[in-house]
Each structure stands twice: as structure tokens, then as C-alpha cells.
Amino acid sequence: HVQLVESGGGSVQAGGSLTLSCVASRYTSRNYPCMGWFRQAPGKEREGVVVTDSDGRALSYADSVEGRFAISRDTTKNALYLQMNSLKPEDTAMYYCAASARVNCGLGEAGFGYWGQGTQVTVS
């Protein structure tokens, strides 16, 4: 089955930047065209941050991150990235990479059958 491994999290001051990476194994973009980033802050439900189609085009951004975060995808490396700029304390969360067999997907978790273990982002 598909395995997703995130990296790149860490601690950063407000206004700073981080780039998260997700590498997929046992995976093809044809079988799992939708990929996305989700996050879960302490005491809150997991929420969608941004999702992308098989060509790396963003399908939807959460309002809270639009204009600050950018998703990209390298199908040759089976990799997904999240460039996060102008970070705010409220961006503090565990960030998860997820893959879906759906061609079109939104910020909801439905349809995302494969998840990574997450990478922690802390903004102070």
C-alpha cells in the first residue's frame, strides 16, 4: 500500500518560512491523482490546508493560508511540497500529507485513504 513520509517541520518565529516535503512510495500519480496537506492543532479537529491534482495545480486552499502557502508536486520524485511563508502562531500544528484515488478532491478528508505520520510545525 501507499506510504507517505513527511519532513521539514520545525520551530520558527512568526513571519518566518518553512518548506514541508512528502515523499510517497508504492505510489503512482495515475492511481492517486489527488494529494494534499492537512493540519491538526492541539485540541482542534484536523483541517484541510491545500489540495492538488495530478499536475500539481492547487484545487483549493484554506482561506487562512491562501496567499501565504503554496503547494507543488514533483511527479518524477513522487514528492509533494508545501512552501509556508509569513507564518503565524496559529499555523502551529501537526501537518499531514495525504493521498486520494479521486481525480477531484476538496479540503475535506473524505476520499483521502492514505496518510503520513505528520511533521510538527511550531510558530512562536
Summarize the structure in short.
The chain has 124 residues and is mainly β. 0% of the residues lie in helices and 50% in strands. A hairpin with a 6-residue loop joins strand 4 and strand 5 (47-52).
- The radius of gyration computed from the alpha-carbon positions, rounded to a whole number of angstroms, is 13 Å
Q: What is the string of helix and strand elements?
A: EEEEEEEEEEE
Main beta sheet, described? Answer: 7 strands, mixed
DSSP strand (E) fraction?
Answer: over 45%
Show unreliable segments: none
Shape: globular
For the record, give the distance between the C-alpha atoms at the N and C termini, rounded to a whole number. Answer: 37 Å
The percentage helix is under 10%
Structural class by helix and strand composition: mainly beta
The count of DSSP E runs of length 2 or more, i.e. the number of strands, is 11
Query: Average pLDDT value?
Result: 93
Number of contiguous helices: 0
Structure commentary:
The chain has 124 residues and is an all-beta fold. It has no helices and eleven strands. Strands 2, 4, 5, 6, 9, 10 and 11 form a seven-stranded mixed beta sheet that branches. Strands 1-3-8-7 form a four-stranded antiparallel beta sheet, with no helix packed on it. Strand 5 (47-52) and strand 6 (58-61) form a beta hairpin. The termini are far apart.
What's the topology here?
Layout: E1 3-7, E2 10-12, E3 18-25, E4 34-40, E5 47-52, E6 58-61, E7 69-74, E8 79-84, E9 93-100, E10 112-115, E11 119-123
Parallel strand pairs: 2-11
Antiparallel strand pairs: 1-3, 3-8, 4-5, 4-9, 5-6, 7-8, 9-10, 9-11
